[in-house]
Design goal:
The complex is a heterodimer. By secondary structure, chain A is an alpha+beta fold. Helix content of chain A is 35%, strand content 13%. In chain B, 79% of the residues lie in helices and 0% in strands. Chain B has helices at 2-6, 8-38, 40-52, 54-86, 101-104, 106-134, 150-157, 161-188, 197-224. The N and C termini of chain B lie far apart (58 Å). Classes of the chains: A alpha+beta, B mainly alpha.
């Protein structure tokens, strides 16, 4: 493989801490295999930096198989880079060409402050979840078997599709308004579609939307960018459902 | 309830409601204007009715002005809030990869439309208000003009090629604004209908036909008026 790989220029956002000012810094990596994942390429860069005594680039990563949602990188102007339906760890270097310059930035949103380099604080998502992204069930041993409640195949499928959201924040990162409505719409939908979730649906949507606003996320203008960049293909229909749920909770209840 | 309209989604819904109202108004305005091409006498009759009917003047007109002002003010408020939510800008952002130019530039097409409305008010609305409410002349007549004055006033306005060019440009931006706004308003209202083929086709047709129609009306009067 050696000698046949790609030579790349990387422009990476470096920022020591949330208080410090950051800037784009250029790095060169060579002999990058097209079979590598983007994160493996970042590992190569960091090994190189460590060898020369420089501070390695901090970036979030965990499962490296597209389900944890940690690898938040804005690559060449797109969340998780130029491919579709993937996270950064699933982005292959074959998407790039020898001699390319690749820009790598953290998610940008006031509600996602940078912790260091490419690592951002996404606990705002967790606080939204805590505001209502659950169902209250008595689990003292008398819990009803979930399969005893009839659920239409269509509703079950749509709820499952919404539940595939991994909370990575690509929707916010890609949104021109830094809106979190695809994430919140998915979390509200996965419960609103099922009988177990419908009991608390009015309070859930009110509380989660209130928390979303409190965190300082923007307003959706239906550009649809989130849906395109979402690694799990969460549909924009979930935002419409959230809007309906909020209207229902205010005017119909 | 005030909590609802202060929430991010409530604001979207208010934006969509005012948009529906304005799109309905635009269609009505277009329907009357197109008469000027095919039937100047009928255009004069309808214009006189709209200009002097108390329901139109004292009920619909204030609602319309409120609708226009609300849509603009709320648009600017949302834009400012969104700018604040974004914070630091990207070094490189490839918006074209995942969204339409129209959807990303609603504020700019909106500002062009606002500038147009100012011009349009100076051209037509202020003179009307002056004639009717200041001078107190509700006759719809003017010295030296046979019948009602409206058709004549319309034709005179479109003599200037600069004004015609400004109107054409504004209607192009109106079309771009509508190409995103029409279906977007449905989504904000919680309806997925705007994402289905039927309404997308209706939206595209409306967004092209209405502004193009206004352009053709302006051009028609520019080229047919002989003094």
């Amino acid at each position: 493989m050696s000698g046949k790989g790609m030579n790349l220029t990387l422009k990476i956002w470096r920022q020591n801490s949330s208080e410090k000012k950051g800037r784009m810094v250029d790095y060169k990596v060579s002999d990058i295999s097209e079979h590598m994942s983007f994160l493996e390429m970042m590992d190569v860069l960091n090994e190189q930096l460590i060898a020369t005594g420089e501070e390695p680039v901090a970036f979030d990563h965990d499962c490296r198989e597209g389900i944890c949602g940690m690898c938040s990188m804005y690559i060449n102007g797109e969340a998780h880079g130029p491919d579709r339906g993937i996270t950064t760890c699933q982005l292959h270097m074959r998407m790039f060409n020898d001699g390319d310059t690749i820009t790598i930035e953290p998610w940008r949103a006031s509600a996602f402050p940078v912790i260091k380099d490419l690592v951002v604080d996404r606990t705002s998502f967790e606080r939204i979840q805590q505001a209502g992204g659950f169902i209250a069930v008595n689990t003292s041993g008398n819990t009803q078997d979930a399969n005893a409640i009839p659920i239409s195949k269509h509703a079950a499928d749509e709820a499952m599709d919404a539940a595939t959201c991994i909370g990575c924040g690509a929707c916010v990162a890609t949104c021109k308004n830094s809106s979190a409505m695809l994430f919140v719409g998915a979390k509200i939908s996965q419960y609103a579609l099922l009988p177990q979730g419908q009991v608390e649906a009015p309070d859930r949507v009110k509380n989660m939307v209130a928390q979303m606003d409190l965190e300082g996320f923007g307003n959706c203008t239906n550009t649809g960018a989130c849906e395109i960049e979402c690694p799990k293909g969460i549909s924009l229909d979930n935002i419409a459902r959230m809007n309906r749920e909020l209207i229902k909770s205010n005017f119909i209840k | 309830m005030s909590g609802f309209f202060n929430s991010s989604i409530g604001r979207k819904i208010a934006m969509a409601l005012s948009a529906f109202f304005l799109m309905f108004f635009l269609l009505q305005h277009f329907a009357i204007n197109i008469l000027s091409v095919f039937n100047p006498d009928l255009f004069n009759e309808v214009s006189h009715f709209m200009g002097t009917n108390p329901m139109v003047q004292f009920a619909l007109q204030p609602v319309l002005i409120f609708g226009v002002v609300f849509h603009f003010v709320m648009g600017f408020i949302l834009e400012l809030r969104n700018k604040k939510a974004v914070g630091v800008k990207y070094y490189k952002n490839n918006g074209a990869a995942n969204s339409s130019w129209m959807s990303r530039n609603m504020i700019y097409s909106g500002v062009v439309i606002l500038a147009f409305i100012v011009l349009h008010f100076i051209d037509f609305w202020f003179p009307e208000i002056n004639t009717k409410f200041i001078k107190g002349d509700w006759s719809g007549m003017h010295e030296g003009i046979e019948g009602y004055r409206y058709f004549h006033e319309l034709q005179v306005k479109f003599v200037s090629p600069i004004r015609v060019a400004a109107y054409v440009l504004a209607f192009v931006f109106l079309g771009l604004h509508l190409l995103h706004g029409f279906t977007s308003a449905f989504q904000s209202m919680g309806s997925t209908a705007g994402r289905k083929k039927t309404l997308q086709a209706i939206g595209k047709t409306y967004s092209v036909v209405v502004p193009l129609g206004f352009i053709l009306i302006a051009l028609y009067h520019h080229f047919t008026y002989h003094h």
